[in-house]
Amino acid sequence: MQKIVVEGGAPLNGEVRISGAKNAVLPILCATLLADGLVTLRNVPHLHDVHTTARLLAELGARVGDGGPGVVTVDPTTVNSHVAPYELVKTMRASVLVLGPLLAKYGHAEVSLPGGCAIGSRPVDLHIKGLQSLGAQISVENGFIKARADKLRGARHVFDIVSVGATENVLMAATLAQGRSVIENAAMEPEIVDLAECLIAMGANITGAGTGRIVVEGVDRLHACEHSVVADRIEAGTFLVAAAMTGGRVTITHARPDTMDAVLDKLRDAGAELDCDGDRITLDMKGRRPKSVDITTMPHPGFPTDMQAQFMALNCVADGVGVINETIFENRFMHVNELLRLGADIRVDGHTAVVRGVPRLSGAPVMATDLRASASLILAGLVANGTTTIDRIYHLDRGYENIEQKLSGLGAKISRIG
Ligand code: UD1
After folding, report:
1. Among 30, 117, 225, 276, which one carries the catalytic annotation?
2. Can you tell me the distance from the alpha carbon of 197 to that of 284, in angstroms, rounded to the nearest whole number?
3. Protein residue with least CA distance to atom 39, ligand 1
């Protein structure tokens, strides 16, 4: 099995290009099922989860093509199956996002239940309730969500809890429903806005994406379109934290600073000087040690749970004590035990972690437990004395494009073995 080896000590310096967002491209790939023609997507990151979604679309009968670097085409007109099998869904929870499009387009869908995952039980009840509001009949049998509707009907749906995936499923389904749908307490993530922009390019009638109230006027059909995927704010944030932890100066390009307010504010609190210029952000730490920051994860525009592990790594070497509250997922401190192996001082009580910064971590073999946890271990390795070897890096390849090449380009001593 492949591992990543990091030699700590080098401050990062230079420029790095940010890829398209994993969390935008996955729902958008699922949304292609709604179109009656070829969908061309640009700025598609080369990631394992993108590959899995492409396999799922192909399994349903769509023709997925490689249009050159960063370009993926999907011809959904050949879809002839409406079943998302367990083998694919179990490896990637986002597969559940084919439910809404299949149901809206074909009146029928069967999607395997995703099951648990490392960061918590992550149920799909909100997706099911939302689609039921649009008139779907849904049962859970033999490990599958089985959904039917001759024609979905527009309706007002109020989500109990803000959910990114459930908002996306209902939004996609509503585009082809009869009449007006109003989605209240909708997730406001930039990836929802990007999905809505792609759907609008297909001919959907959507207003309010990016606010808590999305209004969709159903249309009879959606057509071919082209769309460029929004920049990955989590990848961008991860490189900025790496620069801050190593005391370096890094410019990220092709980013979307306007989607990153909460993270940029915390980096300023940590003592970073930031300069945003169009799609570029320069972080200069001027060789200083970062200051500890307190973090509470929240739905957008609050601080993203997908950046929690990276800021935990920053607090491990920062000056002072930082308190981290995880409010989105029940079990998202799996990286703590691994960071302790590197010499961190962290105490966990329920959903709260208290991190006392130490002047220096020390390299050790560690194990990645989930996607963002893997990133936090690389960040810690960059500032640890000696060598850190990170095992189970397949998690990393699900969500970071060429991370070791990108970090090497900034002067990090990092390589992949095995
Ligand atoms: C998405 C992101 C993930 C991010 C998360 C929160 C993608 C592909 N993944 O995941 O990277 O960490 O948003 O920003 O975009 N919940 C229920 N019932 C449901 C659905 C969710 O109780 O039916 C709960 C979850 O357990 C969690 C909370 O709602 O506690 C928010 O989860 P949600 O926003 O749905 O996350 P995902 O869409 O799965």
Report:
1. 117
2. 34
3. 165
